[in-house]
Amino acid sequence: MKKKIVIIGGGFGGLNAAKALKGLEAEISLIDQTNHHLFQPLLYQVATAALSPGDIAFPIRAILKKQKNVKVILGEVTSINRNDKKVFLKDDYYEYDYLVIAIGSRHSYFGNSEWEKNAPGLKTISDALRIREKILLSFEKAERYAERQSVDKYLTFVIVGGGPTGVEIAGAIAEISKKTMLKNFRKIDTTKTKILLVEATNRILSSYDNDLSEKAKSELEKLGVTVLTNTMVKQINEESVLVDDDLIATSNIIWAAGNEVSKILKDLATEIDKAGRVVVNEFCSLKEDDSVFVIGDSANCKYKDVSLPGIAPVAMQQGKYIGKLIEQKIKGEKNLKPFIYFDKGSMATIGRAKAILQVGKFKLSGFLAWLAWSLVHIFFLITFRNKYKVMSEWIWYYISLRHGIRLITNRTNI
Ligand SMILES: Cc1cc2nc3c(=O)[nH]c(=O)nc-3n(C[C@H](O)[C@H](O)[C@H](O)COP(=O)(O)OP(=O)(O)OC[C@H]3O[C@@H](n4cnc5c(N)ncnc54)[C@H](O)[C@@H]3O)c2cc1C
User: Fold this and answer.
1) Ligand 1 center to residue 127 CA distance, Å?
2) pLDDT tens figures, 11-70
3) pLDDT tens digits, residue range 130-186?
């Protein structure tokens, strides 16, 4: 009888696991709560009206259409029973011989979940569209009320969290609010636009070397971003944020400060770290169950005694590795090799044509780093259409400084 493999999540980890199982005589079910694979690294460009959702999201079913051994299921996994080897959705279940869990993470508000409604985080297309509408609506309000009242709160943007996502959003908002978009408005005074990036530790981009994080800070400042380090957000309301002891009036707060993983991982009854990630062994499986694998952002996987970061290359490499490992197990091969991580480095972009890049001891910043960033991101987009589309949008923006996707589609209530 064919072995049953269930993969939960069609993100970077799950999709690569499914692809690595190509050609295997097995019954593979890939379950995802959305119908698309999302290229999260470019999500901030959807949130800041530079790209359309379709440029960075692709139907999982279409990606795997030629892979006959995979069945794609749209549905949310609500629980897992390891004893019965079953994965439950709302109204049915799937049995497995091997289970791959690659469900990524959501943002964490560190126990203040009520902040989410006023300070959305950025993980999904819906999050990005919500942020985009919030930003665009705020400019519309500033334009409409500028002659009658102070509009500072509509022109103040507070981004919480100085990691790559926070830095990228802050840079992009600075560009659109100070350079790109305001040419289209008559009343808004660009000198009044404030962008604050709030970071609790002593520097932004703390996973990079100090000199690169200093460079990123100075580039952000040139774009007009105020970077506040060693600063804590203490309260968030609809129209203000308390930053240390300063109450800042703003209706634009974006959360980019922390991650947590789905509660369904608790069903696995295994070791979970403080961020809710499953602690896996060197084969990316549970210590007590070698038929259950957890990869990507949901896993705490140590390599050379260091926990691997929550970035796309980790999830992709683990996905490929797990696919091969399951194949070897099904074929009864012995001497299985543990996971080896190849560090390809990290990069983050700052505004239109600046970035930082670090690969081991090699470091680069400025325009060349941004070129490398652009090429890598284009390369990893899934289809030729998307690669072409994103590249042409970037070239157009680079030349014209104009973003095209500035639509507010929900009812505005103003
Ligand atoms: C805004 C942003 C910017 C980023 N920038 C970079 C970057 O520049 N470089 C980089 O390397 N990394 C970046 N990352 C991180 C990178 O995207 C993640 O590390 C990577 O996506 C993790 O892959 P994954 O497979 O673990 O999870 P994901 O890619 O998040 O996929 C998880 C999948 O599981 C599905 N899912 C979740 N729960 C369930 C459930 N209960 N039932 C069914 N399906 C479920 C989701 O719908 C999703 O499709 C960024 C992340 C974000 C959010």
Assistant:
1) 13
2) 999 999 999 999 999 999 999 999 999 999 999 999 988 899 999 999 999 999 999 999
3) 999 999 999 999 999 988 888 999 999 999 999 999 999 999 999 888 877 777 888
Ligand 1 atom 23 nearest Cα: 12
Burial class (CB in 10 A: 0-12, 13-18, 19+), 130: middle
Distance separating alpha carbons of residues 395 and 399, to the nearest angstrom: 6
From 284, 311, 373, 382, the mutation candidate for ligand 1 (largest count of ligand atoms within 8 A of CB) is: 311
Strands 285-286 and 289-294: antiparallel
- CB-hemisphere CA count at 13 Å for 121? 19
Question: Measured between alpha carbons, how far is 81 from 89 in angstroms, rounded to an integer?
Answer: 12
Q: Do 231 and 244 touch, CB atoms closer than 8 A?
A: yes
First to last CA, the chain: 62
| Distance, CA of 293 to CA of 318 (rounded, Å) | 10
Ligand 1 atom closest to the Cα of residue 377 is 8
Class of residue 333 by CB neighbours under 10 A (exposed 0-12, middle 13-18, buried 19+): exposed
What is the maximum alpha-carbon separation in the chain? 76
Residues marked active site are found at: 168
Closest ligand 1 atom to residue 103 Cα is 34
